[in-house]
Design goal:
Bound molecules: S-adenosylmethionine
Oligomer: single chain
Number of domains: 1
Largest sheet: 7 strands, mixed
CATH architecture: 3-Layer(aba) Sandwich
CATH topology: Rossmann fold
Number of helices: 8
Shape: globular
Strand content: 15-25%
CATH superfamily: Vaccinia Virus protein VP39
Order of helices and strands: HHHEHEHEHEHEHEE
Structural class: alpha/beta
Number of strands: 7
CATH class: Alpha Beta
Length: about 220
Amino acid sequence: AGPETWAEVDDYLTATLLPEDEVLELALDENAAAGLPAIDVSPLQGALLGMLARLVGARTVLEIGTLGGYSTIHLARALPADGRVVTCEYEPRHAEVAARNLAAAGMAGRVEIRVGAALDTLPGLREDVSAGRRPPFDLVFVDADKQNNVNYLTWALELTRPGSLIVVDNVVRAGRVLDESGTDPVVVGSRGVLEAMGAEDRLEVTALQMVGAKGWDGFALARVR
Ligand code: SAM
């Protein structure tokens, strides 16, 4: 069994377990029509994110890396009607497509898109949280420029509370994470964030390798103590 079988099994699981979802399919079609790269989470991973948000009883979610809002829709749907997703996106074009997809999904009212480099937009959120203008985030999903993952972990710790969940995508990269001498900034970023998570006393951590439609990769998960 190899990547083709992984993808076939993913298709089988998706067809067997998940309901048909025209809104999510439309979002992927709109992303493709707008020329966005197809680097969204898979349907099963999206369902996992939604389930995790529900399990932690999330009311507020921070996402770093919106793309066309596919994962954002999964997360927003998992919140109560007065819940809030703040999602950070560098590319204005991606943010525009995401805004349309979120509106079509009926989720625009629950989602704030912060356009710009996340490291520039996150400090404003900390001010709001410290001043009590918004509550700390119950779940953080990190899925943007991997070279900044250590910085995003630091920000996630600033912006959460005990019991919050932090999920970091793409920490396996088809095994390239083993390459300790690598210069690929993506691998360096993934290794860096895993090492930081492992060394952080404030976090209870684990990671899952996953194979499927997106190849071989994985999520790191951390619960704030
Ligand atoms: N979470 C999305 C999903 O599953 O549907 C996929 C996100 S995609 C893997 C990564 C996104 O992060 C891209 O849209 C990219 O433009 C954005 N990005 C890259 N660098 C960024 C930065 N410094 N700040 C915020 N977003 C960034």
